[in-house]
Amino acid sequence: EVRFAFNVQHDCSSGTCTPTGKRPTLQERQETQLEESFIEHDAQVRRFVVNTASLHNPHLLRRIFPAVLIKPSVLWDDCVLLHRQQAERLREGRDA
Fold it and tell me: Domains of the chain: which residue ranges?
């Protein structure tokens, strides 16, 4: 029984997925001479990450999954400091 649609992505970090695929770049739906890389997924890894930030049925996702699995996590304790450091690096690169 399908209850609702939701977005998942392959868990490439658990596998050996790498950007080793090559294909022609499309422009106006026509193949060009340029090539682009794409991720070749490890088919042996049958793990997926649920995109809880997707706009599709977030209220249903919150109802299905335990809160501990979908709560936001803090990546940096001091975001303001991180932003200042990144801005300084960008300025240094620009002025070099």
Answer: 1-71
